[in-house]
Amino acid sequence: DAGVTQSPTHLIKTRGQQVTLRCSPKSGHDTVSWYQQALGQGPQFIFQYYEEEERQRGNFPDRFSGHQFPNYSSELNVNALLLGDSALYLCASSSLDLTGGLQETQYFGPGTRLLVL
Amino acid sequence: SQQGEEDPQALSIQEGENATMNCSYKTSINNLQWYRQNSGRGLVHLILIRSNEREKHSGRLRVTLDTSKKSSSLLITASRAADTASYFCATDATSLNAGKSTFGDGTTLTVKP
Q1: Which residues pair with B47 in a beta bridge?
Q2: Is A31 close to B99, i.e. CB distance below 8 A?
Q3: What are the average pLDDT values for consecutive 10-residue runs of chain B, which has 113 residues?
Q4: Per-window interface: B 26-65 vs A, CB < 8 A
């Protein structure tokens, strides 16, 4: 049973470029959340996708966008990269059951480390 | 700003000793979770404690929650060198916010063999 997978593991971009990060959730999970973790800090919530729509969003600019596919995998896109976007980007998956109660435990992937020069 | 704040920021102990980390938060919560992270890798979920629970155990881990003080503690007993990692607390405000966790900046634990 594969856990949460993310690609690529590392990425180097220059300012102004665009980047796409990918995440495959744990088998059986239908919800994907993305987090940004700067060096020495805790993760910060970017947004969450459920049923192919953005369900919740944190305090991040519109340069950060995402997508969820019918197979529940997800992409995080960042446009017009800034030096401050350098961070570890974490994907977490879980299973939401809005009618029968929520399964709150999230399972995290290994992350994608993005360096913006 | 982060909802949770861990204390201390760094902790260094000898193998076999107990390690206690504390977390404080600012607003009401539905649940609180503790995670471990090794060297900037992905987070590993340790324990989830709901707002109506006061204590939970998992192996060598003991978590307490005091909602009146808006605080939680994580106790690792009989620590091992392999417990060396960063530990984070995270809160979900309501059940509808599940998955939108607010993290603190973590406690870095070093266990010396």
Answers
A1: B34
A2: yes
A3: 75 97 91 91 92 95 96 97 96 77 93 95
A4: 30-31, 33, 35, 40-45, 48
